[in-house]
Prior knowledge:
Bound molecules: cytidine-5'-monophosphate, magnesium ion
Shape: globular
Strand content: 5-15%
Number of strands: 5
Largest sheet: 5 strands, parallel
CATH topology: Rossmann fold
Order of helices and strands: EHEHHHEHEHHEH
Number of domains: 1
Radius of gyration: 16 Å
Distance between the termini: 12 Å
Mean pLDDT: 96
CATH class: Alpha Beta
Amino acid sequence: MTNIILFGPPGSGKGTQAKFLAERFGLLHVSTGDLFRYEMGNNTPLGQEAKSYIEKGELVPDSVTIGMLKNKLDANPDVKGVIFDGFPRTIAQAAALDELLAASSAEVDGIISLEVEEAEIVQRLLLRGKDSGRADDQDESIIRNRISVYHKETAPVFNFYDAKGKGHKIDGMGTIEDIAARLNTTVSAL
Ligand code: C5P
Ligand code: MG
């Protein structure tokens, strides 16, 4: 299996690029944010719990997110590999992911961080909020909170894998096509 974490702050282009990579390399795209939004759309108990955090730009508790991720992997046992988009967001989630993959004799092969300037991500999110319908993209104070949570809780996940020699940084500024080309080069070399 080839398992890749596509990493970076909200608005760095993870979702857009993960779709391309999944297609090009035949991997399963797993976006925990999309899974939460699906649950919220269906107003399930999981969706209702997640909503109370997401609407503030906070993280859903690790146990909830890890349980949902495990269900998704269990439902797709025969994949060639996975692109993780928006997960893991905490060190506890990273440790849980390593454990889940190890149970199938697999591991995280690389973490690729999309490097984007902060002013640019705020602009991208506000723009996306105009047609995505996502309430958490429409309010600048929620966006700022998501970025602050990213710096405090999520950024250490990169160092966790980088310390094992698995970290890669990509310039996430420029056109979607340019960024996709940089990612293809990095993933091909993993
Ligand atoms: O990944 P995405 O930006 O779509 O996630 C949207 C929201 O879902 C996050 O701001 C956060 O509230 C929640 N989330 C989370 N834990 C994750 C992924 C998403 O709490 N691992
Ligand atoms: Mg996303």
